[in-house]
Amino acid sequence: MKKFREWQRMGRDISESLRSQPGRVGLSMFSVMIGIIVLTLLLSMLFGLREQSRQLVRKFGANVIAIIPESGLVAVRGFRGLDDIAELMRRNLSGTHVAIMIRLNERVTNWDHAPVWAIDRKTPEVRGWSLSAGRGFDSEDEQRAARSILITDALASRHGLRPGDSCSIGHHAFIIAGIVRDGSGIPDAAGMNTITGGEPLVFMLQSTAERLEYSVDASSAAVFLRVDEARNHSVMLARAQALVNDPAWSAWRMNWVTPESLIRGIRDLQRLIALTAGSVSALCLALGGTTLMSLMLADVRQRVPEIGLRRALGGTPRDVANLFVAESCVITGVAALVGIIAARVILGLLEGRIAVPLSLEYFTFVIPVIVSIVLGGVFSFWPAQYAARLSPAQALRNA
User: Fold this and answer.
1) Are β-strands 172-181 and 130-134 bridged in parallel, bridged antiparallel, or unpaired?
2) Residue 382 phi/psi, 5° resolution?
3) Disulfide check for 225: which of 9, 65, 320, 377 has CB 3.0–4.6 Å away?
4) DSSP 355
């Protein structure tokens, strides 16, 4: 009960002190609030990029290597060129599973012109895709060049599609065999991400595309290797690169994409955002902390008689110091709450309107609160110690 009354009395003292100097309090809160807003936005972007990198690896496939030949090989040799690379890998790299993907110059016109990819029946397994409905391709489908397709869940949900529905590609009818969860195309040759969440794609068997004589898009084709977990991913990558350095393939430049190269661009963007937005946030918080410190020093000088009276009535130096630290933490805590609310509004307005992904995780809002409280404690330490060192006699003499 006694402790509660002490806290209650401290709360009244803090409230009266804050009301007595609204200008200084407002300036300190505003400076800290700006820093908290920038910090919250920064964390939201960094957490969003981290989640995007995880999604990229999941969509691309863990332990997967993509060999992307220059367009000339596909333009000249078509499916045959990719098949030769795939066969080269199968013969010489034990412990790997090989599949191909190549985009066709065909689209499903009644489904938002969804792009169509030719794959072999092993591609979903190599890429690590799973089915949310229906079935995948089997060897019988491949042998008879079945007119069956797989579609991504993004396309299915957009148009309310399900296994058994039909569509037309070119002049031929197809039946949906299954729906692929998180299916995606291929990344670009530079390793930067072209895989975005929710791609509306259609997949057909390579044997079907060849039988129907569909033409290929020479700019989008790849051979994928999935390395067994027991094998060293880097060693297998080096062996695969050595194979295509053979003179028979040296005329065709091969680009290599791995999960590491995919997220390299995201990590570079994370560092850039952390450097720029982090610098602005740190500057604003430092300015807020400095303003707060000057406020607390001025507050101490104005309240010298009160400090002397507290000490004369039995208050300890620690009680005096705690009062000023608590007052500072209240200012920064309120500034943090207002800043977080403002940042949440800004994030709501920015979501879907900027290229950088945003994530509203729990720690996006918890970390700024912790930072603000630590800021209040650190920048109030010197003023609090200055107030605590005042002797009762000195303080009352200056009253």
Assistant:
1) antiparallel
2) -65, -50
3) 65
4) S
Q: Which amino acid is at 201?
A: L
**Alpha-carbon gap, residue 53 to 49, rounded angstroms:** 6
Amino acid code (one letter) for 176: I
Q: Are 191 and 265 in contact (CB under 8 A)?
A: yes
Tell me which H or E stretch contains 218.
Answer: strand 216-227
DSSP 3-state assignment of 61? coil
Q: Minimal CA–CA distance to 328: which of 383, 377, 387?
A: 377
- Token digits of residue 142: 């491949």
C-beta separation of 96 from 214 below 8 A? no
For 230-260, how does the pLDDT look when each residue is reduced to its tens digit (9 = 90+)?
788 888 889 998 888 877 777 778 888 888 8
CB 202 within 8 A of CB 114: yes
- CA gap 61, 65 in Å, rounded: 9
Q: Does the structure show a pLDDT above 70 at 195?
A: no
Using the predicted structure, report yes or no on whether residue 189 has a pLDDT greater than 50.
no
Distance between the two ends of the chain, CA-based, in angstroms? 33
* Chain segment 111-146, per-residue pLDDT in tens: 878 899 999 999 999 988 889 999 999 999 999 999
Residue (of 328, 318, 338) closest to 290 by Cα position: 328
